[in-house]
What we know:
There is one protein chain. This protein is α/β, with parallel strands linked by helices. It has one domain: 3-Layer(aba) Sandwich (Rossmann fold), CATH 3.40.50.880. About 35% of the residues lie in helices and about 15% in strands. The strands form 2 sheets. A 10-stranded mixed sheet has the order 3-2-1-4-5-12-11-10-7-8, with helices on both faces. It has a two-stranded antiparallel sheet with strand order 6-9. It starts with a helix and ends with a helix.
Amino acid sequence: MKNFGRLVITLVLAISLNVGFAQNFLETELKQNKTYVLLAHPTVQNIETINFMLNNNLLQISDAEFVGVYSEAESYDYSKSIALIKKPEMGRFHLQKLISEENTAKIYQQNAWTIAFKQLFDHSVGIFFFGGPDIQPEIYKQKNLYSEVTDPNRHLFEVSFLFHLLGGKQNEAFIPFLKEKPYYFVTGFCLGLQSMNVASGGTLTQDIPAQTYKKSNAEETLKLKKDQLHRNYWQEISKDTLLMGINFHPIQYTAHPFFLKKVKADKKVVPLVLSSHHQSIEELGKDLIVTATSVDGQVIEGIQHRLYPNVFAVQFHPEVPALYKEGKKLKFAPDDTPKSYLEIISEEGREFHRKYWETISKAIKASERLQKMK
Length: 374
């Protein structure tokens, strides 16, 4: 029995240490000759998304490895991500857990995360920020009117990391990390764009239908033009099980050259984008420039940093795998004919999205090249 007890203790320790190593990239897996890209909020879905982009040659950075970074205080169960990256085919992925916590008052200054943020920055060439739930409005000094906050600690972590990278109006004396490496790559999708804006001192419209269009419920909202709907409100009034939770709508480019010159988008094509949000940028953050809007100009759909050319984000979702492969046929409204996402955006739309991922790939490679030259 004594030997059995020792065996159990040994197994428990081995499992604990293995899990710990799986979340401590900086101490156990970092190699100086490797190129690393960070992934904030590395859920199973987000890791699988990046892996899909790599396997389908949409993200063209063959030698890079990826480090998922997160705070232990987030609500997501990261044991699922740990299990995923242990699979033999997922050897390019690592995890780094930060064990400290912070509060709203300290996210725009040096804090308990600063040293780890700097280490991660020093050993990487870029970072992705993904979609997710509403940011708590107190972070951008507003009362909560329409926000549904389900993971406040995730937002504290990601907004603080973005502030450390880019700086912001909240603390002009703070020297952002990108001052040291101005070609470092930073991008965001949906919430990622909103977090970038908030981190640099901007604010958000908490509910587009209520605050932008003065609509009080789903029925009223659905009277708007389809191009003005940024998610699907039919789900709130219909029990149809084939309804998609998103909307596809066109965007328009601003005079800023990002989409036409950097992405090389066809100016004759108005692409449809996958939209799933009810919040948007209100006041722009420090040094952010608008690159695209909704057709009516009411919602900002793209931004780029004025000083740092490889910092850009979009309000829509170019990272959804169903845009690039055949999937389930769904419909927006009850009377619509079901179609796959692939059918909806058409070949012209897919070309736009492929070019957007080419732009991301080039930005990462530029960051890597300039970092190696130092």
